[in-house]
Amino acid sequence: MSKISKFFKGGGSGAAKGRGGPSPQEALARLRETEEMLSKKQEYLETRIERELALARQHGTRNKRAALQALKRKKRYEKQLNQIDGTLSTIEFQREALENSHTNTEVLKNMGYAAQAMKKVHENMDLNKIDDLMQDITEQQDVAQEISDAISSRGTFGDEFDEDELIAELEELEQEELNKGMRDVRLPSVPSTSLPSRPGKMPACHSRFLMIKPCSSTRKRAEDEDEMKKLAAWAS
């Protein structure tokens, strides 16, 4: 049995079991430390490969034995470098899987806490009581709506009066106003001057003041006609 197998089956696993196993954070920290160590090992091997390659070029065919030894060491370093590359890929894959598992565990844990909190909140809730409460709320909303409709509806004050009587009274008032307007109208007065004896003969006032101003009788007649037109328009 190899030493690595003895380690995992022996003290190493026993120590982990004694502690209840490492936490995800501890395992991730160990993996990152291993990645860092292997990365430094990579840099070292790459440097040694370049050095051995330079020695092989330096010796060349002049010192064939030394050149071959340098190339052999370069090959061993390259082999170790390839092994480290594979190990780093495995560790990186394991670290990502552990990170995802840790994330999923935390998500499930928080979801469990939330489920317990919801259960605790709903412990004191009775579905029957909730239905009764919602029914009460609906009834009170209906009552409030009826009150609002009653308040906002048109009032019935004054509906006891007969509308026909009111219309008759209104017509009487309009007739009184019409009669009053007729009394206030001034009828046109009879002209005081005599009519001309022959058609076409213009009164003296017209002949004397034709280009200055109309005579008084003509002006009076025009005013009377205007008043009659106003009276007819008001009566219609």
UniProtKB/TrEMBL annotation:
InterPro entries reported in the protein's UniProt record: Snf7_fam
Keyword Protein transport: yes
Keywords, alphabetical: Coiled coil, Cytoplasm, Endosome, Membrane, Protein transport, Transport
Keyword Cytoplasm tagged: yes
Compositional bias per record (Gly residues), positions renumbered to this chain: 9-21
GO CC annotations, alphabetized: cytoplasmic side of plasma membrane; cytosol; ESCRT III complex; late endosome membrane; multivesicular body
Topology of this chain in the membrane: Peripheral membrane protein
Superkingdom: Eukaryota
Annotated GO biological process: late endosome to vacuole transport via multivesicular body sorting pathway; protein transport; vesicle budding from membrane
Subcellular location field: Cytoplasm, Cytosol; Late endosome membrane
Compositional bias annotation for Basic and acidic residues: 220-230
Family stated for the protein in its record: Belongs to the SNF7 family.
Name the record gives this protein: CHM4C protein
Organism (species): Zosterops hypoxanthus
Name of the coding gene: Chmp4c
